[in-house]
Amino acid sequence: MRHRPDPRRGLPESAHGARITPIYLSAGFVFDDFDQAEARFGGTDPGYVYSRNNNPSHVAVEARVAALEGGTGAIFVASGQAAVSVALLGVLKAGDHFLSAPSIYEGTRSLFRDNFARFGIEVEFVENPRDLDDWERRIRPTTRLLFAESIPNPKNDLVDIEALASLAHRHDLPFAIDNTVATPYLLRPIEFGADIVVHSASKLLTGHGASLGGIVVDAGRFDWGARPDLYPHLNESRRNQPSFVSRFGAGAYLAFTRSVVVNRLGPTPSPFHAFLLQQGIETLSLRLRQHVANAARVAAWLDEQPQVASVDYAGLTSSPSYELGQKYLPRGTGSIFAFTLHGGRAAARGVVDSVALFSRMTHIGDVRSLIIHPATTTHLHLTQEERDRFGIDEGLIRLSVGIEDADDLIADLAQALAALPAAAAHAAVPAAAAGPAATAAPAAARAGAGAAALP
Ligand SMILES: Cc1ncc(COP(=O)(O)O)c(C=O)c1O
Predict the structure, then answer these.
(1) From CA 367, how far away is CA 361, in angstroms rounded?
(2) Could you state, in order of their start, the residue ranges of all structural domains in the chain?
(3) Do you find a cis peptide bond into 232, omega within 30 degrees of 0?
(4) Atom 16, ligand 1: which residue's CA is nearest?
(5) From the alpha carbon of 84, which atom of ligand 1 is closest?
């Protein structure tokens, strides 16, 4: 029996007609005979071999996410961090250089800056991700890829995906994008030219917060054979094997990433986690509708509060990302964003400690609402200068807005803001420490309802 997935139903072929994709908890798969073993290893028989290479539960969820993103294939791995790692290692080698937007998840930044550097792969962060010239003038002969997040975590400072993809393609480079915070329900970056889409499936794709996972999706359009000098690993034949490009064409990148990068490094998830991800995806559209509706209300409400200096949410007309949000995210600008309190760290401490409905956690995209103070947690190891540069102010709080009742969420934040001692609520943020967030003043603050209006 062949275990081939049916992408339309998200089901692997099942001997018993199970409606829910079975969990194939098996390390390996039996070969019928001597010849089949050789054919499986040689790639002429597509059947399963060993769960580190692939597994029917993984294949089912890979087909599902590839279909949602509009890609030609996907690889399911153990976490979002693993997805970003293998996605880029499928392109980059020692001596290569790549460009990244500066506003990205802090774990990804550390991975690029610290770990990739140890592999001899150099990352360069552009200063202003909306300035295409800033990207273009940094492209060198050794540059091999451009990277950004579709909704940057936590600052929501959007990039122009279509323009970046065209720029990358003009230089024969692929554009990779982390679509974790948007999900394919809000945005399908492949439709705007992205070549590689990665996800932390631990977040909104799964939604229930019970498991970790990561996904790499290939658009299947990039011509890896056009510049063999840039991507020799895909174009050169090795040990009597024809090159990946000659064997797989536009699928060369995914085949290499699966068989050489993932299979060798081994960030293999349990098939049980593929099952948990499948369960999450079943309700993606329903959850996302509620997430974005709640987030829009909470962000708008926060923007009017006198204790709040700014709200980094692209759905607000005061946001510098508003136009890009309208173009790329017409269904909603996400549910994970930051806001900055006038009262700095003391005010942030007060709010974080007072909320009752929000969980104090370093996680996002859960059906439950979550809250964290980045400067003392996710961004703690940065220097003050770096936190200032990235707009991670002492008064900045990140929210991941869940699917509870929006009125309850607002009531919880209202009581937390009301509980702030006058000193913490009113302390002004020193301009030098306020970072770029201070320049994106909310409507209420600009209208005088912010610190200036306080007694
Ligand atoms: C945008 C983004 N990408 C990747 C990751 C890493 O995902 P994981 O925690 O599943 O390794 C995160 C985690 O917060 C994230 O927010």
Answers:
(1) 13
(2) 5-280, 284-453
(3) no
(4) 105
(5) 4
Q: Which atom of ligand 1 is nearest to the CA of 214?
A: 10
Give every strand in the sheet of 336-341, ordered side by side: 308-312, 336-341, 396-400, 370-372, 359-360
Query: Measured between alpha carbons, how far is 152 from 145 in angstroms, rounded to an integer?
Result: 18
Gyration radius from the chain CA atoms: 23
The predicted structure's pLDDT at residue 451: 30
Q: Which of 111, 176, 79, 152 is nearest to 325 (CA)?
A: 152
Contacts of 379 (CB under 8 A, 6+ apart): 106, 386, 387, 390, 392
Beta-ladder partners of 311: 339
Between helix 271-281 and helix 56-69 the angle, nearest 10°, is 30
Q: Given pLDDT bands bounded at 50, 70 and 90, which one contains residue 439? A: very low
For residue 14, the model assigns a pLDDT of: 65
CA of 182 to the centre of ligand 1 (A): 12
Residue 442's pLDDT band, with cuts at 50, 70 and 90, is very low
Ligand 1: residue of 86, 105, 178, 335 to mutate (most ligand atoms within 8 A of CB) is: 105
Q: Can you read off the two tokens belonging to residue 409? A: 């969420």
Per-residue pLDDT tens digits for 18-31: 888 899 999 999 99
* 301 three-state secondary structure: helix
The CATH architecture annotation of domain 284-453 reads Alpha-Beta Complex (3.90)
pLDDT tens figures, 173-213: 999 999 999 999 999 999 999 999 999 999 999 999 999 99
Expressed in angstroms and rounded, the spacing between residue 275 Cα and the centre of ligand 1 is 20
* pLDDT higher than threshold 50 for residue 7: no
Whether domain 5-280 has CATH 3.40.640.10: the reply is yes
